[in-house]
Amino acid sequence: MFDISALNQDQFLVELSNSADRQRIRSDNADARSQRAKDSAPGALTNDTNWDTFKKSTIQYLEIATGVDEVPLAYIIRDQDHQPGDTYDSFEEEVIAKAPHSGSSYDEDRTTVHHFLYTKCRGHDAEQFLPSKSQKKKNGKADWHALKSHYEGAGNTSTNIEVASNLKKTLHYKTERSFKFHKFLAQSQQMWRIFEENNEPQAEASKLRWLWEKTADSTMLDSTVASLKSDLHRDTSSWTFTTATALMATQVTSAVNGSSISAIKPSKGDSNIYRNGQVFCGPYTDNEWHSLSKEEKFKIIAERKRTNYKSPGRGKPKQRPKQRPNNEIKSIKKQLKKANRKIAALKNKREDSSDSESGSDEGEDPNTNTAGNAFGGRAGRTKEKKKKKKRRT
Length: 393
Hints:
By secondary structure, the chain is an all-alpha fold. It has helices at about 10-30, 30-40, 50-65, 90-100, 105-120, 135, 140-150, 155-170, 180-195, 205-215, 220-235, 240-255, 285-290, 295-305, 325-360, 370-375, 380-390, and strands at about 275, 280. Among the domains are: about 5-150, no CATH class; about 160-225 and about 240-260.
């Protein structure tokens, strides 16, 4: 969008080439652009509470969908016209700001926007807020500004604030089973947006205090919140609501998937007490413990109390001496008795054989071997028997 008369020949040829390239790209991507428009189209405008979502989705849809001259239809509902000196980040932004609100192409495009908006409002409360002769005039620009006037007007501000305040009271996160964190986060962002759009923006410190309060019952996020608070204590600008919730969302996803990640890069002095994003309860060596700051030691002690951590104690635990099983002891005793019986039997057998050999030697004078008789041997017992017989007779 420029004044051709102000260009020299070389500049004109460059702009002509750029225009041809843009036309070729639009032609090649026409089908894909149409599909993107369909995918981004909003649902029906059913009540006051979904105006914010409807508004953003409608603007996105009209920035993709094009009109008669292949200009994005968002130019129909723009809030401001181009002013001298305005600059733009892209060619499409410039076209949307500079496309004229007059002529046959404009009339056709605003009719297209009217049909789109009317379809989304038909059968719902929003239909009554369209201009009285909307169907006759088919002016999409007038329809859009009428809806904005109602839903964003002063009379509706109190209703919007009430909706946001109710969300602020009722939103709460504990576990994924009871309420998904991504839903908690989406409704939180919507709440802050409503406050901002109705001239009651909330300070970052206030948002973070609300976040700590509403996630206090989530044990899964305890260590992450503790780390964030510690960082904010040192530097109040180190985290915002958006960056803090992004980190918490990552931690929740990690925990649900059964893995663990470092919740936060440890600051100086904290590198020795965090393991996988949580305060490590121990055990610590003497050197490690003495190298920690007082604040770090307090964190470890608090975490030990919270988790009911029990120290394994110093040194290796004493081991009880192994005891033989009762069956093994009985078996050994049985074998010992058997061995003793064999030894006794062998001794008796040896004595008997030596006695028989001494009594059967031929030519041996019984009186020559009197050692046994002296100590009550066989001969001695025989003599004793004879003496007893004589006494009886």
